[in-house]
Amino acid sequence: MAVTNCVLLHIEKHVMLQTLSLEPRLSALFVKYLLKRNHRYQEDLIDQLFNSSEKRLARVLLLMAQFGKKELSEMTVPRLSQMTMAEMVGTSPSRISFFMKRFRKLGFIKNEGGDTLQVHSSLLNVVLYDDDRTGVTPAAHTKKALQPPARRGGSPDQDRAKKPPLHTVPIGRR
């Protein structure tokens, strides 16, 4: 699905194979493209398996804005329908709406009207550090993780004590 106007060229398979064998530079360029595409598929699969839909949406917006390739703090991307973004992220349009409102409220994105959306580089913090502008920094996460719990026997221990004990059921002999 094309997001913007574009020109497409259809090349027959046998013509492409012949051209790749005759033009080593084209062949190298094509293999490089295929490797990048394969790497992107692997990243997308890992993203789908291990990240929340909010992080996946942030990643999609940053990829569309091509952050890392250009040294700008804000980039403009074409606006997509919530259905299209939901398909890209792997979630429902209502979740996309919820996250987009949240990103807008936190200043990560701006609707300038029309067919574009401004994405601010601070959205990268959502992907890297789970930053939701609550004032908790990555350093604070690390410090908290290194500190022992305040006291033993707190709420998690009490909840665990209320659960019935695990019983093993012997497996019948053959």
Description:
The termini are far apart. The longest helix has 27 residues, at 24-50. The protein has 8 helices and 3 strands. It folds into 2 domains: 17-50; 52-145, Arc Repressor Mutant, subunit A (Orthogonal Bundle), CATH 1.10.10. Helices cover 54% and strands 7% of the residues. The chain has helices at 13-22, 24-50, 53-65, 82-89, 93-105, 124-129, 138-146, 155-162; strands spanning 74-78, 109-111, 116-120. The chain is elongated. The chain has 174 residues and is mostly helical. A 3-stranded antiparallel beta sheet has the order 1-3-2.
Q: What secondary-structure arrangement, pairings included, does this model have?
A:
Blueprint: H1 13-22, H2 24-50, H3 53-65, E1 74-78, H4 82-89, H5 93-105, E2 109-111, E3 116-120, H6 124-129, H7 138-146, H8 155-162
Antiparallel strand pairs: 1-3, 2-3
Would you kindly provide a brief summary of this structure?
By secondary structure, this protein is mainly alpha-helical.
Please, how many domains? 2
The CATH superfamily of the largest domain turns out to be: Winged helix-like DNA-binding domain superfamily/Winged helix DNA-binding domain
Can you count the beta strands?
3
Q: Label the overall shape.
A: elongated
Helix percent band: 40-55%
Main sheet specs = 3 strands, antiparallel
At CATH level 3, the topology of the largest domain is Arc Repressor Mutant, subunit A
Order of helices and strands: HHHEHHEEHHH
- Report strand %: 5-15%
Radius of gyration: 24 Å
Average pLDDT: 76
- List unreliable stretches of 5+ residues: 134-149
**Helix run count:** 8
